[in-house]
Model the fold of this input.
Amino acid sequence: MSSIVLKNGKFVLLEKVFAGDLLIVDESIYKIGKGLKGDEEMDLEGKYVLPGLIDAHVHFREPGAGEKEDWYTGSCAAAAGGVTTVLEMPNTNPPTITKKLLDEKRKKYASKSVVDYGFHFGASTGNMDELRKIDRIASVKFYMGSTTGSLLVESDSILLDELHMLYGRDILATVHAEDERIITEQTKKLKATGRTDASAYAESRPNKAAAEAVKKIISFSLKAKNRLHICHITTQEELALLSKNRKDLQVSVEASPHHLFLTEDDFERLGSLAKTNPPLRSKKDQAALWAAVKDGTVDIIATDHAPHTLESKKRDIWAAPAGVPGLETMLPLLLNEVNKKTLTLNQVIHLTSENPSRMFGIRNKGRIKAGYDADLVVVDMDLEKKVDNEKLFTKCGWSPFAGWKLKGWPVKTFVRGRLVYDNGKIIKTKGKEVSYV
Ligand code: DOR
Ligand code: ZN
Ligand code: ZN
Done:
């Protein structure tokens, strides 16, 4: 047995902040208290300590596009961003839609991770048998509109059958909710106008596309009774639908940093770099999303870390791939808000660790409490610096927030008691797959 005491920390607990020490024994939090002793000691000099973030929505690119992000670089970006657990999406090439491909991902790729991890499994139009077989997953992911990769479930009857099956197996359904029919129609129209500006792309995936898909998945989930998680909501329309139906559904809701911190006003500056699915929205939608974060309608914030090379992003708006990286900037962006007093640290930990752990049923993670995994992030609330592309660990090497000056940064990240990130340096360790309650 080995033990280490983190001395003089300010530990952010669910409802309060505790100033004192934390004793880690082996991989777990053993005790929080004052005057604790251990084999080793580390003085935190009064810095705040948060539970390591659980990012429920990341895209790493293996197999298929390891040149954009592999499991090692992606997980380094996570560690540097204070993220100690990632749940990875299935839209790789090939996509994770069979048990065999999932096991291959586990063995060949995710084994390189320096942080802990879990997997979302992909629903396709022909993999009902696979959905019957799989286990130890965070959720089954449905793409209702097409995006990076080939995954898409367009058929209503298959969608409903698959939701029924998930209900039977008590597996969570996670959804990318954009209506494929609207997207196809609008894309055709807009391309025909010859427009190649970033707003034209956004117009091809209007608010209505998101709202129609959310309306459908809510009505189907009411029928099938499955548990539902809606990824990256962006519009006032989706929020209105949720407030109408929430009491009858087991539903959780996610928002992504790029939709909270960027809007369509950034299209001119960022061009194709700002191309994401769903697209950046108006200032009004952004304000509604923030209000939903603050009133608890939004359960979790997750990055939707979607790395693409700069070279591919610099293509014209229709040809460039959709997505932005986010693992290294989510926490600093949120801590900067805490410094501006628009959020509290307690709100941040609910949105980024406590709630994701609960929504996805992750065992022993997401909270600073005796018995939990010692997944911790030490943050320096006074450190002010600019987001610098040169310093990023993501293989894609850029951020839509490059040049933003932010106050409040992670400085040390622990995964199960082991220091994996220390002031700009990765200390290589071995992440492991999470287990579920
Ligand atoms: O912008 C996006 N990028 N949205 C998605 O749904 C997928 C993601 C990706 O994997 O690139
Ligand atoms: Zn998505
Ligand atoms: Zn995504």
Notes: The pocket of DOR (ligand 1) is lined by residues 59, 91, 147-148, 176, 276-277, 306, 321-323 (CB under 6 Å). The longest helix spans residues 207-224. The chain is about 30% helix and 25% strand. The mean pLDDT is 97.
